[in-house]
Amino acid sequence: MKIALAYNLKPTSASVWDDTYAEWDDWETIEAVRDALATDHEVVLIEADAEVERRITQTAPDLIFNMAEGLHGAGREAQLPALLERLQIPFTGSSARTLALGLDKAATKRVLRQHGLPTPEGVVMHRSDQVCPLSFFPLMVKPLYEGSSKGIWGESVVLTPADLRRQVSRIVERYAQPALVETFLPGREFTVALLGNGAHVAVLPVVEICFAALDQAAVPIYSYEAKWLWDTLDRPLDIFHCPADIDAALADRLAGLCQRAFSALACRDWCRIDVRLDDCGNPAILEMNPLPGILPHADSHSCFPQAAAQAGMTYTDLIRRVVALACERYGLRG
């Protein structure tokens, strides 16, 4: 089968302090996915830029392995899937609708609540002088339409109305989009990787984000600093523990919660879901990631590959499994 690997390549000149391309993939990741696909298939690389439709039409692939994040706009992750849906070309992962929904944190929260799923109280703020109905601090302030911890720093957890106004203003000015303000949950944080479709969605071993690995003065969140500045290949942080040290009851609650969320957003093939506990130990969904990161290096601290490894899967196994799930959906012979 001919598979086109669609991607966005992170510029090598981009500074780690510039988060414009934080969601894009480096060449090492693209090569790793290509090599995994090449064990069974003919693979063609297609960069998802302005020429992507012409390249896809000329290549005529049987399936596209989608890892393209897009650029510009709240629907950027849906840009390529929408094109593929119009061209009626099969692709891995979720639909354009689900990817657009997943990047809009407020819309995701509405869907979760409609399905009776817990998520922190939140409000969208378009201006720093807007009245915030959430009266209990601390609060968490983040960009409404970003991923990869973009716009989330230690200062994003605010303790006073003045701090809140300052962070909302920073997000509106820097990212040209509203801020999502949420109740800050003080408990443990987990991320849950899922593989499957319909009634057959497998939950991989849970990953805990252990904030004890951060500096003692650091705010206990997985911020941009923690993800991209402090945790490096040269000096990796021992921040991810998989499988998480949790009892069977909590593991079952997390699995059930995330499977229901997977279904609520109509996710396909795979998704990663971030969950945090409140002060009573009850889990709530923070974010959905239907286009999960898959860094291949063992020290890169990429949650999905780590969870897959604990489930007995190699990196190649993971990529092949995603392809198999997509082929099954479309009735293709992989």
From TrEMBL:
UniProt domain ATP-grasp: residue ranges: 109-324
InterPro entries registered for this protein in UniProt: ATP-grasp (IPR011761), ATP_grasp_subdomain_1 (IPR013815), D-Ala_lig_Van_CS (IPR000291), Dala_Dala_lig_C (IPR011095), PreATP-grasp_dom_sf (IPR016185)
Subcellular localization(s) per the UniProt record: Cytoplasm
EC number annotated for this UniProt entry: 6.3.2.4
Keyword field: ATP-binding, Cell shape, Cell wall biogenesis/degradation, Cytoplasm, Ligase, Nucleotide-binding, Peptidoglycan synthesis
CC cofactor: Mn(2+); Mg(2+)
Reactions this protein catalyses: 2 D-alanine + ATP = D-alanyl-D-alanine + ADP + phosphate + H(+)
MF GO annotations: ATP binding; D-alanine-D-alanine ligase activity; metal ion binding
A GO CC term attached to the entry: cytoplasm
GO biological process, one term: cell wall organization
Protein family membership: Belongs to the D-alanine--D-alanine ligase family.
Protein name, UniProt field: D-alanine--D-alanine ligase
Organism: Entotheonella factor
Lineage, uppermost ranks: Bacteria, Pseudomonadati, Nitrospinota/Tectimicrobiota group, Candidatus Tectimicrobiota, Candidatus Entotheonellia
